[in-house]
Amino acid sequence: MRATNVFNDLVGRVADRGRNLMGTTAPRNMAQMCDTLLTGKGEATGLALARAIFDRYDGMGLADRHAFFTMLRDRFGVDRARTETVLKQWQDGDETKLRDLHTASEPRSQELIRRLNRAPGGTRRLVAMRHDLLQLMDDDRTLTPLDADFRHLFGSWFNRGFLELQRIDWHTPANVLEKIIRYEAVHEISGWDDLRRRVAAPDRRLYAFFHPALGDDPLIFVEVALTADIPGDIGGILAADRAMTDTAKAQTAVFYSISNCQAGLRGISFGNFLIKQVVEELGREWPNLTTFVTLSPVPGLRRWALAHRDELPKYLSDTVAAAEDGSRPVALSDLTAHYMLTSRHPRGGATDPVARFHLGNGARLERINRDADASANGQTASWGVMVNYLYDLDTIERNHEAYSTMGEIIAAPPVRRLLKTR
Amino acid sequence: MRATNVFNDLVGRVADRGRNLMGTTAPRNMAQMCDTLLTGKGEATGLALARAIFDRYDGMGLADRHAFFTMLRDRFGVDRARTETVLKQWQDGDETKLRDLHTASEPRSQELIRRLNRAPGGTRRLVAMRHDLLQLMDDDRTLTPLDADFRHLFGSWFNRGFLELQRIDWHTPANVLEKIIRYEAVHEISGWDDLRRRVAAPDRRLYAFFHPALGDDPLIFVEVALTADIPGDIGGILAADRAMTDTAKAQTAVFYSISNCQAGLRGISFGNFLIKQVVEELGREWPNLTTFVTLSPVPGLRRWALAHRDELPKYLSDTVAAAEDGSRPVALSDLTAHYMLTSRHPRGGATDPVARFHLGNGARLERINRDADASANGQTASWGVMVNYLYDLDTIERNHEAYSTMGEIIAAPPVRRLLKTR
Amino acid sequence: MRATNVFNDLVGRVADRGRNLMGTTAPRNMAQMCDTLLTGKGEATGLALARAIFDRYDGMGLADRHAFFTMLRDRFGVDRARTETVLKQWQDGDETKLRDLHTASEPRSQELIRRLNRAPGGTRRLVAMRHDLLQLMDDDRTLTPLDADFRHLFGSWFNRGFLELQRIDWHTPANVLEKIIRYEAVHEISGWDDLRRRVAAPDRRLYAFFHPALGDDPLIFVEVALTADIPGDIGGILAADRAMTDTAKAQTAVFYSISNCQAGLRGISFGNFLIKQVVEELGREWPNLTTFVTLSPVPGLRRWALAHRDELPKYLSDTVAAAEDGSRPVALSDLTAHYMLTSRHPRGGATDPVARFHLGNGARLERINRDADASANGQTASWGVMVNYLYDLDTIERNHEAYSTMGEIIAAPPVRRLLKTR
Amino acid sequence: MRATNVFNDLVGRVADRGRNLMGTTAPRNMAQMCDTLLTGKGEATGLALARAIFDRYDGMGLADRHAFFTMLRDRFGVDRARTETVLKQWQDGDETKLRDLHTASEPRSQELIRRLNRAPGGTRRLVAMRHDLLQLMDDDRTLTPLDADFRHLFGSWFNRGFLELQRIDWHTPANVLEKIIRYEAVHEISGWDDLRRRVAAPDRRLYAFFHPALGDDPLIFVEVALTADIPGDIGGILAADRAMTDTAKAQTAVFYSISNCQAGLRGISFGNFLIKQVVEELGREWPNLTTFVTLSPVPGLRRWALAHRDELPKYLSDTVAAAEDGSRPVALSDLTAHYMLTSRHPRGGATDPVARFHLGNGARLERINRDADASANGQTASWGVMVNYLYDLDTIERNHEAYSTMGEIIAAPPVRRLLKTR
């Protein structure tokens, strides 16, 4: 990492030199700068230009950034003339031109992004740029086509083959640990003592994916607890005064938190790969582990129940109604089973987003736990219910197949039986 | 690197597991396997399939590999139906579909290659695969469209932003040094003693670009000698018994050999970036360096002179004719200047391939050296002539511009004057 | 470090094997075990025995440890017979026996300690052992001769030539940083945020000495602040909301805290080497630094003033008397100057222990600062006075010479003048 | 290592500064310089002086070095007056002075060596110094007492607890591998290809001990071959075209070469520790290994047989006589057994030096191999005989005990039976 920095620094100086050269002919504005970067072929000017574009971007407020993205979308879209030329050749009967059509119709913004990436720290800066873009898209969906370019390139650059799994522990440099504290998105890490419990205790593990171009900034991480049995509540996992599990006897590994770290990489999926690789890693180190489960939130339960109250079986509808005073529904497990097993997302699959992720990975809904999350968050989202998804390497492929092709929600029999209670 | 290996190993085992799962339903042949990889979404099966495809490929002879590539080209080309659908929408007036046209017309082989890349060591295996493809293309140009997919993805993955410059010296692991010996393509390294002279002498340097996915296998390297003056012959640089240059007084850095290491990355250009970064690195370490030049072969001189003898000025035509007995032309410097400055490649730029590279980088043709290369190779190609190209950071941009837009060959006045001799 | 651990582990297993072998013939008690370790020559048994002795020691309470040390002192003292034999030979006229006398009279405990050191983690365990010994010596000075053996060997093993200077910063592993927090003995580090300010701010540095046998456990560290001028109070250095110093303009480096980390290495001196090496390191990185000073406590001032009140010049005696109500003496600077410049330790040199350290290193007493330390500690020890010692590489040797041979206290003229005030 | 170098460099500069300070008062000659180093307490001067002494030493020829060592021996011997004072106190009845006698009689050269060790690279330079001393001692045994000081301190500094085992393979830096080639003392490594076979083949290993103060310069290394059975000749181990052993099935690990690397550390023993640790390491990696043996030369056989011909049983005496024409003795195995089992060194133990080493470690003489070493060396020393010593962790302790206390040569029954043949 150090060596990289030295040379990034050097590249920086190449860029500086280029910038000086650029002095007199420097483009007046970002649009011109981008034009030059895209059409020019000089490397010194190229790196300098890329860096100058990033620097100018960093100095902008959000409104200017919005204008910048709009400009990129409009000015660096598909080369229509070139596309039409190739199209005509193809339609005139030259079959070889079908492939050329793809090349000809590549939005020019893609090559622009590739050239920006050459600058020192380019990847990192592009990820930050897309973070802004995603935020702006909340109000302006017309930027979606531009985002598609970022997403396409990031998907290629952050290919699983380029990721490195690393264990995070108490020997990890503090600057990385500090990021873990900041990035934890599910069960907040309250400080260094809490962190120490999660990474340094013998019955706890934390693994992260890194990408060479982002250095020591992780992409995603998962926190693991070794336990005797499948746990039914998160409080017992996180408590400072919990009993330590004897790892030599532990049979269960619990993935109790998965956090994506890079907002600018939204939609580029790593979690599936991460979990499965960690399952392998743990199994290698402790061959006595037999069970790999999550302890997961059910973020959509309460909102769904209230929205669909009238469509529920009467006893569930009643239980939801009775809970309108803020109390917990009585038949909460049945209600959860109903939500997980019967409701469907408009685009297919389970309604619950966390369920979609794990079921899509081939995991099985293993258990529903009441009183599992006493936090305000947990109460608000799901009246404190959490669930376990089971990762069984021998069945994930079959499960995945059944889920993705037939839409079947794979669940353990006891969960299934909750559906038939009345 | 070690950590990566451990986890590659793990991924290997995930893949093994996937392969076992695959057992009963394993596709009968490569086409089916590729179909499944491309359409399936399961990760365990995915990695296993990718690996199985590579393994099966490795077991094939060249004829089968040819058939495999032909199959890829034909079966995983552009999705014509999807393209036509989008095309129609666009032609029906939906302007937003212009960008979709690009996505729709992406050859399916591109996504297939991306999925192959996820396997352990995938990038390395894809580079090896393309190496075969390039060789087969010598006799079968119909594979060119498939190669365009490899080239496009490699260009994106081996973006300069992902490369790391490293110095190679006598503290470098032997397995890397062994590769340097093997990859040196210009001035053969005769063994470990010769290598030691090139990397361990105080007045010698060797720098290489690496890519994280290829581990300790370099992409390209450049060899540098520090000298008092611009050297006129390669023998003096390589001699085992040469005098050492006092690096505190050296004013000149000579790039006397540049070797690309990965045949499978042909056409993905790194040399330009490498030279400029090394110029910066050297300038930082030895601020007294004022001159950065190459000592380069002129591989096309003799062939060109013989082929164009009749079009030359008479005294040059005579000198070439006189040399038909195997002797060297008398007016060799004039002849070289004529070749470099007046001849043009059909696609523009200089005729000589090495000249095209350096002039395209913005270097200047600085000097013509007779009796510069006593090797059989050097005699055969250019009657022993070598030239120096000068890299001056303050003018490379202007030179590059003049060369690439106007086709102007930038040369030092003394070289220019050779043209006017008679 | 990792590699070392692997092999420590292996050695551990060799030791285990040895222990098994030992099974039937294992010495009944520690004295016998030590006898066997010292006389036996078997390596497997040797490592196992050494480890067994350490393990048994770890299981003991303080009283048993006291008995253990007493046993070592009495049973593994000098071999009197051997000494007398050699002595007689020498006194009989064999001059060559004078050197043998040294060998013959070596306390057997020294070789015993050397053999204990061979065990995995031996050095670390011996350092812990001496820590106990030093504590027991508070009440039992008869153990001093045994401690002389530890001290002699530690002095040899922790020779400056074996120490490694390392910078501690925010990229340092958390387990090392945690030790820094724990070991800071002068100005307590209140937590990770405070630590971060001391190691990660651009105008702060922390350097430590490490020894290979103690791994990542530091021996001593020094904290440095870069400032514009010589600082007059510690609060300004430590404040969370202090202004940052522009390091490009800083002219002063302030050593504001030096902490020894290993209680078991008391009396083995590293501070002198550390400060001077850090001065060089800082000077190399920031050539604009011109001044290297400490900001140091005066721990003995108040006690001395109260004890020697009657011997002071009247105006100082009065000022001390007036301060008996808890207020600060009026003429506090004069009083401090008097303490530093005129009082002498019974064994020579300055009375103040911190002064003895810095003056002995060749530093000069540069300035006396009132209101420099608002902490309860600082008030109690010195009514809040702190002083600066100046490290000037061009004069430290001369200063050191004058101090150590003539007992001269080197002080800046303004400090000297305080003596002459009345 | 890099970090160490940086700081060595710094220390170097502290030393430079000290040297400048020293300018005017620099001692005229080495004796004075050593006096000053020993008595002075200044650190800057101390490092500078130490370095100056080393530098001046390096500039000397062998005769001056001899004079230097003589001076050290005579001028920095035991402080006789101090010794006599303490001696008198002890003889006058102060028992506590017995321990002080040891301290008082320490040759002053020991503390001098310790202070030299503080200089940058001090340990390395002291080891080189002792190398010279050992060579001079060949002709001048009066230097022995001085060597005792070096030996004593080196024994303490190179304590097994400070050594690090490392595997040497093809990923090892070339500068280390180059040293291995140079240091191999038993079976010469003919170049990089030969080295590659010994470190990079799957069925070959090479392990070395390193000491932190010597950086990447090894102390000792052992070469290992994995084989199916106990090998009977070295040619089969070293052959370039040998068949590879399937390591998954190998049952035997053969230590076929052990080389000490540092002539200046002669007499400081590491081999015993190295072999046993490597046995453990190999056993951990390949649990199927059951047999750990050497393939060792018998360097003293031929000389011994010729010298003791007349004392041998007649058939052996005859066989030796018959071999005087240069042919090999007929009953060579019997003769070897007789040599190994019956002859004794004047100071006890086996006569053969290699046998003394392995038997002293607790190994067992396992087999005698005729036609085992076709090299000129092997023929000259032992008519080509080599032997295997077996390291069995379960019996080495007992073997060692029997050998070292009873002088019993432990040998396998078939070897023993050779004694009884006639």
Automatic annotation (TrEMBL), chains A, B, C, D:
GO molecular function, one term: malonyl-CoA decarboxylase activity
UniProt superkingdom: Bacteria
Ranges of residues in domain Malonyl-CoA decarboxylase N-terminal: 76-158
Annotated protein name in UniProt: Malonyl-CoA decarboxylase
GO biological process annotation, one example: fatty acid biosynthetic process
InterPro entries: Malonyl_CoA_deC, Malonyl_CoA_deC_C, Malonyl_CoA_deC_C_sf, MCD_N, MCD_N_sf
A Pfam family the protein falls into: MCD_N
Domain Malonyl-CoA decarboxylase C-terminal: 161-392
